[in-house]
Write a structure and sequence with these properties.
single chain, mainly beta, Tumor Necrosis Factor Receptor, subunit A, domain 2, two-stranded antiparallel ribbon, 10 strands, elongated
Length: about 120
């Protein structure tokens, strides 16, 4: 999200005797302990926001699935569970694991349960 994405929106508030221009950040962002803004899915807070961006695209091999203020997380490695990769991870979705690798067995439909060696 660029600084332009958080540009100030001018709002006119009027009371019976006066009118005031109030500058509100748009869109209104929720402050967090890590950063004072939230990044959209597929992005993380930019460690150097002085370059004109508050959020940057997740680096390769990482993802962010929701609006948050945390760094992108690494994709799950199906090979650690001896499973095949059913769908590669993207900047907004984690890797989806599928069936067990050849020579291994395990429950189907439970992608993060480790497969066991066939004996």
């Amino acid at each position: 999200m660029s600084l332009q994405g958080l540009m100030m929106k001018r709002t006119l508030l009027c009371w019976p005797l006066s009118c005031l221009f109030v500058l509100l950040p748009w869109p209104l962002a929720t402050p967090t302990p890590i950063t004072p803004w939230l990044c959209p899915p597929g992005k993380e807070p930019d460690p150097d926001p002085g370059q004109g961006t508050l959020c940057r695209t997740c680096p390769p091999g990482t993802f962010s699935a929701s609006w948050n203020s945390y760094p992108c997380q690494p994709h799950y490695r199906c090979s650690l569970q001896k499973r095949l990769e059913a769908q590669a991870g993207t900047a907004t979705h984690d890797t989806m694991c599928g069936d067990c690798q050849h020579g291994w067995f395990g429950p189907q439909g439970v992608p993060h349960v480790p497969c066991q060696p066939c004996s």
